[in-house]
Amino acid sequence: MSQDDPIVYVIDDDAAIREALSGLLRSVGLRMEGFALPRDFLAFRRPNAPCCMVLDVRLPGSSGLEFQRELSATNANIPIIFITGHGDIPMSVRAMKAGAVEFLTKPFRDQELIDAIQHAIGRDRARRAAERELTELRARWDTLTAREKQVMAILVTGQLNKQIGAAIGTTESTVKAHRTQIMRKMQASSLAELVRTADKIDMQTA
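Given the sequence above, the corresponding structure tokens read:
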């Protein structure tokens, strides 16, 4: 399986439901890993692949909502779709406020679940892509010298080369040279692109 092949994690203590969902997901080309309890999932070595979780609200020993909070506390970042046979509106509101993608009450149509899963996997793909982009941008930032970082921090505020030179005590031509290096190292084709990059990497903490 490649890193781009998504996985759907299903946590439900009912083996019949896990088996039914496995067949449904296979029918649309999705791989599933099923678990009876949250602890079984936590013991599983997860591959680095786009994923989501289908989680039963009522589980032996603890609720799905409690496990959602536990995952959130560990920054697991797994989009969750809740399924339940005993859902109520306050419960679904709590789940959605905590970041759940969907809250489905049994019986639900197969297509409802598939649509929710595809949406959740799309969300996880987008998050992963954004994280990869940020990692790459931070790596570019790290190639700048201390002086180039200083110039870039002022440059993205919209000040002219002459103003930047006066602010840091150097000549306009030196600022131009720094600017050329900054654009090359950050792989920015325009000042607008450089500004967007600066917003993403948060230069104060990068």
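The radius of gyration is 24 Å. Try to locate this feature in the token string yourself.
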